[in-house]
Design goal:
The complex is a heterodimer.
Chain A lengths: L1 H20 L23 H14 L17
Chain B lengths: L1 H8 L5 H12 L3 H8 L3 E12 L4 E12 L5 E16 L9 E4 L5 E4 L6 E18 L4 E12 L2 E14 L4 E14 L5 E2 L8 E2 L3 E17 L2 E14 L7 E5 L6 E6 L5 E14 L4 E11 L4 E12 L4 E12 L9 E2 L17 E12 L7 E13 L19 E13 L1
Parallel strand pairs in B: 14-20
Antiparallel strand pairs in B: 1-2, 1-23, 2-3, 3-6, 4-5, 6-7, 7-8, 8-9, 9-12, 10-11, 12-13, 13-16, 14-15, 16-17, 17-18, 18-19, 19-21, 21-22, 22-23
Classes of the chains: A mainly alpha, B mainly beta.
Chain lengths: ~80, ~425
């Protein structure tokens, strides 16, 4: 278990390093598409929150999305 | 260079569009600039209609008010109200005869022979959330939030904070956040002792404290591709047991349920999750993909794959089909039931949500701005089907004849309306 946890956190650290070290450069004048609202990681936060609430109450997992959020006795 | 060549070849891009794109790009944080010039307010209203076949039904209206301030700050408040009715599996095993169960609040429900026994319930929940977003400078922003929620037997009070900073010419955004929540559980009729027959009851409330931290990074990979990795760690301490769930005791002769013990779970749980996300802009459409790996100290492991594909139908409408696959392993103390006379473990549950489980979800979102209204309507419909382990290895006697985790069919519809004013 601890070994698995260590392995996964190493994976995250590696992924984060790759994100930092990636050589791709996108100039500001090439970011027209990225500026669109639909190019957000979470373009519909309220719908996402509803979904997370459903999944949290019907499954044993949580996390990965954000810090905080309302608690409930549904699981 | 390749992208520029592609742009150069594309005959559809007019000079006006190119200038428009360049103007947007030069003001790559348009939200801040826009907020400085035209502050406005926004109201989002959604309503969830949720139904499980033969089990729980939920109606949840939510209203969110967001006020934009001239210097890029915003404050928002959200009020949600849940009404939950129906019945959920009690954890008990089916028998060859009709079973009747009475909830703590006095509701009675009857389960057919061979059917998973369910316990009726009715609850209402009110939740208030607030968020304050504040840019600290051109590259760093912060969010502070709180929540208060209350239901018949559960209360949650929490605060959270998050700081994001943009690095590498705004190609990389790093986010650090955390939250603490102090929850209180006060079961109707008192708190039953764990792994007891339910007659030993403690009056008063039980504390549950939750702390979580978030570390995330998102990266612009190309003109049309954004990726992100998030890691979260959640520590839960206190009363983590489900007070209304039970575990059946099976006759060692034929597997017939002859008694019940209450659920008992460890008082600590560390949950970890890693989420990898990608947003990719195709020619016009957008593909959202994510994968989450989750693990916790109750030995549950899960994989979640989420796909969404947004197709614009015009300037003011889009449709977005979605697919999600989820699978989890069972908690180390999950059991389908005890055989009479067996030594009891320290912890045990028969809650199917802590057993081996798969969920498949399919649905679509349709959003549009009608001529007669200034806002945006959204409709999302989802169908979910959950599959548990219907034939666990420790089922004995007549239990081998029953499907101990019949598939659960769920339909969820969300109606939303958002407008600025």
């Amino acid at each position: 278990m601890k070994r698995m946890t260590r392995y996964l956190w190493r994976f995250i650290a590696t992924a984060a390093l790759l994100l930092v070290a990636g050589c791709a450069t996108v100039q500001p004048w090439d970011r027209d598409l990225l500026a669109e609202k639909k190019m957000s990681l979470n373009p519909s936060p309220m719908l996402q929150a509803v979904d997370e609430h459903i999944y949290f109450s019907k499954e044993a997992s949580m996390g990965g999305m954000d810090a905080g959020g309302g608690g409930c006795g549904c699981n | 260079m390749r992208l520029q060549l592609e742009l150069g070849k594309a005959p559809k891009v007019s000079l006006r569009d190119a200038l428009h794109g360049a103007a947007l790009a030069l003001l790559i944080i348009p939200a801040t600039a826009q907020a400085q010039s035209t502050p406005s307010d926004r109201i989002d209203v959604t309503s969830l209609l949720y139904g499980e076949q033969g089990r729980t039904e939920v109606v949840e209206p939510v209203v969110r008010f967001t006020h934009l301030l001239p210097d890029g700050q915003s404050v928002s408040a959200q009020l949600a109200f849940d009404v939950i009715t129906g019945a959920s599996p009690s954890g008990a095993l089916p028998s060859g005869t009709v079973q009747t169960r009475t909830s703590a609040s006095g509701h009675v429900i009857t389960s057919k022979a061979g059917q998973i026994p369910v316990a009726p319930f009715h609850d209402e929940r009110v939740e208030l959330e607030g968020t304050w977003h504040k840019p600290l400078n051109r590259l760093i922003s912060s969010d502070l939030g709180f929540h208060v929620s209350r239901e018949k037997d559960y209360q949650s009070l929490g605060v959270n904070a998050k700081v994001s900073t943009e690095l590498m010419r705004r190609l990389l955004t790093v986010t650090v956040g955390g939250g603490v929540s102090h929850d209180t559980v006060f079961p109707t009729g008192g708190t039953p002792a764990g792994l007891s027959d339910g007659t030993i009851v403690k009056l008063g409330s039980n504390a549950k404290n939750v702390t979580n931290v978030l570390l995330g990074a998102s990266r612009i990979v190309s003109r049309q591709w954004l990726v992100a990795v998030n890691g979260t760690e959640t520590l839960e301490r206190g009363y983590l047991t489900e007070p209304y769930k039970v575990i059946s005791i099976m006759s060692h002769v034929n597997g017939t349920p002859i008694g019940e013990l209450t659920d008992k779970r460890p008082s600590t749980r560390n949950r970890s999750a890693v989420l990898l996300s990608s947003v990719y802009h195709l020619t016009d459409d957008v593909l959202y993909t994510s994968y989450r790996y989750y693990w916790d100290t109750w030995s549950i492991r899960s994989h979640t794959i989420d796909l969404k594909y947004r197709h614009d139908l015009g300037d003011d409408s889009y449709i977005e089909p979605l697919l999600r696959y989820y699978q989890q392993s069972a908690a180390s103390f999950y059991t389908v039931g005890f055989v009479e006379g067996a030594t009891l473990p320290d912890f045990a549950t028969s809650d199917y949500r802590l057993g081996r489980l798969r969920t498949i979800t399919a649905g679509a979102t349709y959003s549009f701005r009608p001529d007669f209204a200034t806002g945006e309507f959204t409709v999302r419909g989802q169908y979910m089907r959950q599959f548990g382990n219907g034939s666990p290895s420790n089922a004995i006697g007549i239990q081998r004849n029953f499907d101990l985790s019949p598939p659960v069919n769920i339909v969820a519809v969300v109606l939303g309306y958002s407008f600025d004013y």
